Amino acid sequence: MRIKDLRVHSIAIADPPLRSSYGLHAPYALRNIVELESEDGIVGIAETYGGEGPADALRKIAPDVVGKDAYRLTGDLLDAAEGEGAGSERSHVMSTPGENPLDAGPRTYSAIETASLDLIGRSVGVPVCDLLGGRVRDEVPFSAYAFYKHGGGGGEGSDAREDKYGECLTPASIVRQVRSMVDEYGFKDVKLKGGVLDPEQEIETIRQLRQEFGPAVPERIDPNSAWTVQTSVRVGEALRGELTGGGYLEDPTAGIDGMAQVRAALLGKGIDTPLASNVAVTSFAHLPETIRRDAVQVVLCDHHFWGGMRQVQHLGKLCQTFGLELSMHSNSHLGISLMAMTHVAAATKNLTYACDTHYPWQTSDEVIVGGRLKFVGGSLRVPERGGLGVDIDRDQLARLKERYDKIPYRRRDDAAEMRKHVDPGWQRVLPRW
Ligand code: GKR
Ligand code: MG
Question: How far apart are CA 318 and CA 331, in angstroms?
Fold first, then answer.
């Protein structure tokens, strides 16, 4: 099935002022939508990181894709999926996901792979997860993803959105935020984005969440490398009761070496809380040292930057072989990404943790026919249709592209947003606490 055309659409979606150790989310998150059209007029789609860099990379690779066979694309382009570098410069410690040039290859490749699997799936009437070897689950659970945030629902000026959760900069307001998400979507796990308030406040937030939801709801906290080794150990000790039993401590400190030190210190105190990572460990090249040093016990996969869905399956197998567990990372996204995440999770056996998703934060924009996807009991059902199971809504795509053209944002820069809206002198200092 020969590819006739590759199209890239840059879009902007309203996003609330969410905080993390990277800084502050801009009023719009950026995404790129990819279309691969075959000679017989079937179109496969994918969603990936936004802004100019990822869009340019996709346009640059287009001549290598057009004229090729969709069934062979992944083989033909596989070298691009590796990316560059094996050290901390390849990690997401200093750059937000989607902004590290060293994993531009895997990101670009992943978008092409997803769109070609959708194309093939549509043409033969087979869901993507079944093309990937077959589903091991029909429903994929996701977790409530809580963020400290400022007031505001995203968007700007006359496009400003309703602020569903209000300002959330205290433990009690995070409990209200999560309660609302759990009631609305049925999530059964909670992840708190940390690295924003003093660690004592974040410890208190996790404790209050435990009081509210009880031990049956596993908890995770992720400060994106904001803490020293000592602080990470202190938090691990303080939350030894809360982060076990299905929870974990995610990227408390920077780098594989730092994570290994935290692990050793916690084990020395008899605390076996798993450490998870999508910041220190972002590529296959990171695995040997990670495993050798027992730095991480849960790897957060993400087909968007690990080089595609099949690479996530390979990652799953490696993790299983070396006794690591697998969870899934997310970034601000719409329904095409959410469906792709659902398919790859359905086809990856040892992905046993509820996946992260930012989806509830993009409360009103959507680019797929039928509008926002609905979680039932915190999970999404794998569609039975061929391909990913979602189609582009052309009117919505045009609207989101028009918005992208109007706004000044061309890349994610959370530090610049912090300086603009919160603190003119703000710098990302690591470790902060
Ligand atoms: O959306 O601000 C955010 C998150 O901090 C995101 O950028 C991270 O990549 O969710 C992610 C994580 O788990 O580290
Ligand atoms: Mg993380």
Answer: 24
